[in-house]
Structure formats: C-alpha cells, structure tokens
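[stage:ingest] chain + small molecule (LLP)
[stage:ingest] validated
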Amino acid sequence: MLFNNIQRERIRDLETPFYYYDLGLLNETLEQAKHAADKRGFHVHYALKANFNDRLLSVIQSKGFGADCVSGNEVQKAIDLGFSADKITFAGVGKSDKEIILSLQHGIFAFNVESIQEMEVINELASKLGVIAKVSLRINPNIDANTHHYITTGLDENKFGVPTSELESAASVIRQAKNVELIGLHFHVGSQITDMNVFKSLCVKVNEWKNWFEERGTQIKVLNVGGGLGVDYQHPDDNPIPDFQTYFEIFDRFLERAPHQEVHFELGRALVAQSGSLITKVLYTKSGVKKHFLVVDAGMTELMRPALYQAYHKIERVDTDQEPGVQYDVVGPICESSDCFGKEVPLPQSERGDLIAIRTAGAYGEVMASHYNLRDEVRYLYSDALNLSPSL
Ligand code: LLP
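[stage:predict] done
[stage:export] tokens:
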C-alpha cells in the first residue's frame, strides 16, 4: 500500500497529476546497491537518463555514485549537482562537437565511444584543446537481451557500438590517435533485463574481447558492462528493491579480471523505478458497449511507456482498501487511442475524483514527459513533504 490513512488525507486535495517520490525507498535501494557493489570493489555510475529530477539526483550523488550521461546537458547537470568530473562518463551514439568539447573542458572520466568516426572526431577536438580524452570503446557483442525490441541494444541490427568486425581497424585508429587514450571496453545489451543468463552471456563476451585486445598488446583498465537490470513491474510491493546481490555476484563470478582492472556499471532503472508513482485523479467514468472506462487526468504526456512500449504498470486506487470489483480501461485525456495506461484493470468501483497510482514510474517516466497538447509541466511530491508538512 502506497499511503497510510494520514497521508491519504493529505494528498486528497492536491492538484493532480503529480509524480510521488518515496525518498525512503530510494535511500534503501541505493544503500543496498552500493553495499553489494562496494563489497566486490565495483563502481556504479547512475544513468541520468532514467530520471534527472534534481532532488533524486542529489540523493544519488550524496551516496557516492558516479554519473552516466548521454548528452552535454546531462554532463552539465551532473557537474552542477556535485558529481565530480572524474566520476562522469559520456555515452551515446550521436555526440555533437559542442557536447564533446564541453565534456573535454570539464575533464570527465571517459567517453564511451560508439564508432571509429566518433573516435577520430574526439581525437581532433581534444588535440585542438590540447588535452587527452580518455575513452572506452563500446563493442556491440551481438547478444539478445530477451527484452522489448525497442530497448534491445546489443544485437548486430542495433545502431549501438562498434561491430566486432570493425575492431581491428578501431584498434589501429586508437593506436595512431595521439589525443585519445583507450582505458576501457564498454558493453550495454539492453534494458529491463530480468533473465540473469543474459548477464552471464555478457560476461563471456567481455572476457573474449578483453583477451582479444590484450593479445594485441592493449591494456584494458576498465570493463564497463553497462546497465539493464530489470525491476518487478507486476509486484512493486513484494519486490520493491531489485536483487543487487545476485546481479553483482554474476559479474563477480564470471568476469575474468586482474586486480588492477576495474568493473563499472551504468544502472538507471534498477535504482529509481520503484521509488516513483504517478498519481492521477479520475475525471470521468464511462461505459461503452463492452467496456468500462476511467478517464484520468494523467496521460501519455506524463508517462509514455504504456503507449510507446505497451509497457505494463500496476494500477491501483490509493484512497481506499476496497477489493476490486470492476474491470476498467484506464485512459488519459490525450487525443490518441494509444493514450491508455492499462486495459481491463481490476479496480474497486470508482467515481469522479478518486485517486489512482500508476506504480513503478520512477524510471523513464518524468524524463520522457512531453508538452504534447500544451500540457502543464510535470508536478512532484516528495515523501518527506508528505510526512512532515502539516499544511500540504
Ligand atoms: N547504459 C546505456 C548505454 C544505456 O543505453 C542505458 C539505457 C543504460 C545504461 C541504463 O539502462 P537501465 O539500467 O536503466 O536499464 N525508455 C526505455 C528504456 C531505455 C533505455 C535506454 N538505455 C523504457 O522506458 O523502458
């Protein structure tokens, strides 16, 4: 249950929709992840793309995580919020010159480079600035992550990384590039991965390609295995925190590495998804020929995942403990049939004004919001405000 009775009272008259962030759960999730990683000497960079809400980022920064960024603006935000430059990586398949220059000027830890051409551009820009750019080469290992095809990134057909057939020429470009220092290899095969065997297969590929480079006399300091650990969208209350122990243990066991080699992770969703819920109000109830609809005041403009990936999010009433009695299609106000959060969702009989939570929305929720239909800016509520402020 998301809210107790006092909290229910307090949220009843708030303007909706809003993102509710449970800072206690965020804290506990980060603690568990950090503990499991530190125990094995692993480094975790939080992938800002999952959620760059300032308040959440500050908590994440304060726990000692690094930052994995995919735009110049994310790099700048990480710097502004206190992440130290030597804990910032910059990834992405299409970095602009402006973004590369900004990151070089900040002296970030490393660029995760996605193509030979990008390597050449970074070398040229670094040379103009008179600096050495540290880079990790992103290799496309051709592994199926068994997840939604839109968030699969490690197959030959995906646009990401350098295909293994081009590694020979990549290695020779790197050897000649005077302003680029290769420090690591980077892999990321997809997101919302729940099949742990995918990570075992990834370890096998990492070992293989690390050896390949070492046999050619290139020392690799950093093995960056990306992110992708999934969360339980079906049962957010039973599994609020992902099993970080098992996840890190797989890499600990299956990744071959020398003592001087660091293992880096770029976790996004696993660190923040369960801490966020989208709270929305029923505007209208409608019964069609075959259907009961709840028209709510949040739409695909606030949470795009169901419309974009047919993603499942648990939907529940937050203002009652009544048992479900009706199956509703829960839809938003946007003029698109894809603006639907869930079909045939079992819920208690509901009326205009009732409050609904769309759970597990802390990752890729707020950040993917849009202004389509000139909708309002996204609003938030943080759990500490709810617990402490008597006059919300
Ligand atoms: N590293 C790289 C290179 C990535 O591309 C991503 C995510 C991550 C790390 C973080 O992955 P995570 O730990 O969050 O799985 N909008 C989609 C997800 C897109 C993921 C993109 N890349 C969704 O809502 O499911």
